[in-house]
Amino acid sequence: MTALSATAPGKIILFGEHAVVYGQPAIAVPVSIVQARAVISAIPAAPNGQVRLIAPDIHLDSLIDELPDDHPLVLAILLTAGHLGAQRLPAMQVHLSSSIPLAGGFGSSAATAIAIIRAVSAFLGRPLSNDIVSELAYRVERRQHGNPSGIDNTVVAFEQPVYFVRGQPFETLIAARPFTLVIGDSGVQSSTAAVVADVQRLHQADPESIDRAFTAIGDIVRQARGYIQAGMIDNLGELMNHNQRLLKELTISSPELDLLVEAALANGAMGAKLSGGGRGGNMIALVSPQTASRVERALIAAGAVHTWITTVAPILGPT
Ligand code: MEV
Questions:
Q1: So where does this one cross the membrane (predicted)?
Q2: Does ligand 1 lie within 6 Å of residue 148's CB atom?
Q3: Residue 298: CB partners within 8 Å, gap ≥ 6?
Q4: 296 CB within 6 A, ligand 1
Q5: 91 C-alpha to ligand 1 centroid (Å)
Q6: I need a labelling partner for 227 at 20 to 30 A (CA). Which of 157, 218, 239, 243 fits?
Q7: What is the pLDDT of residue 316?
Q8: From the CA of 18, how far away is ligand 1's center (Å)?
């Protein structure tokens, strides 16, 4: 049998990270400039059930029997097999590669789980719907992250801009006009689970003021949705800056991210903020196509280890 492959994109959160864990809305978009790829091939003459998992990026090359069942990549394979009622998998090799920076706010864990779920289900001859793929990836994320909102697996599985509220069906966000973002990677790895747990401690210590910040972030997200749908892109910049101020208050930013945000703003960006789990990882800046490369250069000079330019394009709706 020939090799079979599946990919999944990275994602960025435009507005609302962390508050979304507490029921506020958030907006996220897929970014296919970075992606995870799972390639599956049969291992001829090996006994059924023998599954070899190779992920050079994390120096992994093992049979899944030798790994713990709750290893996220193993879990993605086992949950898929379980969902399809496959008692015993055919002997196969799962090769995972990814251009998504690890622990960098790009949703790499959701993307790797989703690439694997898609590839394994297709290999078994029963490709799964986006709904099921997203649900299985959420279960992997939950084991890994403790208390994820579900936004990462949703935006990555459906590959559309989403307006997301925890526990509710997501809304496809249709931008009336395209807009351009520069993404800057601080190069600092940061565990989303650890930051989410820290925010939870802050919340327990002072629920009133933390809830006030979350509500203010929710208001920003609702306004942003309206501006994106109306094509009033110029208004998004100030909302990003306001969201960033609130994230800073919540201790979710970092000196490295603050430097990048300031550099972007000083070089023509209309707004800038961290994106994703925070304390490291990436930040985003809203730019015009004319200022994009100037902002990119400024980010590199301020310490970014990598930059990308991405356009959020109008889309026609659910596919
Ligand atoms: C991570 O991409 C977004 C967070 O809000 C966590 C979550 O929603 O699960 C920080």
A1: none
A2: yes
A3: 263, 264, 266, 267
A4: no
A5: 35
A6: 157
A7: 53
A8: 5
In the chain the domains, ranked by start, together with CATH numbers, are: 4-164 (3.30.230.10), 174-312 (3.30.70.890)
User: Which residues are the active-site residues?
Assistant: 152
The Cα 280–Cα 106 span in angstroms is 11
What's the rounded Cα separation, in Å, for the pair 262 and 233?
Answer: 20
What is the H or E stretch that residue 42 is in?
strand 26-42
The yes/no answer to whether this complex scores an ipTM above 0.95 is: yes
Ligand 1 centroid–CA 110 distance in Å is 11
pTM comes to: 0.96
Q: Which of 196, 214, 283 is the best mutation target for the ligand 1 pocket, counting ligand atoms within 8 Å of the beta carbon and taking the most?
A: 196
From the list 309, 176, 294, the residue with the least C-alpha distance to 235 is 176
* CB 18 near ligand 1, within 6 Å: yes
Q: Please tell me the distance from the alpha carbon of residue 283 to that of residue 31, in angstroms, as a whole number.
A: 14
Tell me the per-residue pLDDT of 192-202, one tens digit each, with 9 for 90 and over: 999 999 999 99
Most ligand 1 atoms within 8 A of CB, residue of 18, 29, 143 to mutate: 18
